[in-house]
Amino acid sequence: MKNDPQCRPPSDSRDCPLCRALDAGPFYQDKHRDFFRCSTCLLVFVPPEQFLSAAEEKAEYDLHQNSPKDEGYRHFLNRLFLPMRKQLVPESRGLDFGCGPGPTLSRMFEEAGFPMSLHDPFYANKPSTLEKEYDFITASEVVEHLHNPRKELERLWQCLRPGGLLGIMTKLVFDRQAFQHWHYKNDHTHVHFFSRSTFEWLAEQWQAALTFAGKDVILLGKKNL
Q1: How far apart are CA 135 and CA 146, in angstroms?
Q2: In what order do the strands lie in the sheet with 116-119?
Q3: Cα–Cα distance measured from residue 164 to residue 116, given in angstroms and rounded to the nearest whole number
Q4: What pTM does this model have?
Q5: What is the b/e burial string over 6-20, where b = at least 16 CB atoms within 10 angstroms of the residue's CB?
Q6: Which of 61, 103, 166, 195 has the most CB atoms lying inside 10 A of its own CB?
Q7: How distant, in Å, are the alpha carbons of 54, 62, 124, 143 from that of 59?
Q8: Phi-psi region at 217: left, alpha or beta (left = phi > 0; alpha = psi -120 to 50)
Q9: How far is CA 66 from the centre of its chain?
């Protein structure tokens, strides 16, 4: 229906928080938030003034019940763990970025013989971990939460050694019609939504080897010097 508020687009345009293009236009609006889409990298994003506060965001994360003892959660993480493990040489050292309150993916890699470090702005806030280099970095269900995706992804890429691997798991945007009915957008801690085209743009900027290892698993390989 034309008068349905969920179908009313936002009224203004925005700069893209990833590629900095000036051509991000209205994409969708519900009764809580506005969503814009960049015409260059196709990132869909919520404007910063509609982000949750840090306290509100952490309160949402505190509700998560993820645990390394949960076999169902381990099975879910296998979607990222298995394709990454196949590409790692023995004793590769990794960083689990955005590990959350119950680090599990890092435990899985450690059990497989890969030493891990942890970083999370709420649960493992250790700035020194982002001053080191790693053979691989994981970011499972993380990039959709980043408030400054350009800065934070560039920082991770700089932490990756030449020949290293960045593994990302996040659900991908398809089109406006699917977005309207997409549960993923209803989580108010999710503020940036990537598409295949977004990762293709990012890989081109980084001159990275890009692999879509599943419908929501993205691997970015850093070239050797």
Answers
A1: 22
A2: 116-119, 94-97, 134-140, 160-169, 217-221, 209-214
A3: 14
A4: 0.92
A5: eeeebeeebebbbbe
A6: 166
A7: 9, 5, 16, 19
A8: beta
A9: 17
Give me the phi and psi of 204, to 5 degrees please: -65, -40
Taken as a whole, the chain contains a residue count of 225
Using the structure block, give the residue that is written with the tokens 């869909």: 44
Amino acid at 101: P
Q: Retrieve residue 179's tokens.
A: 């977005």
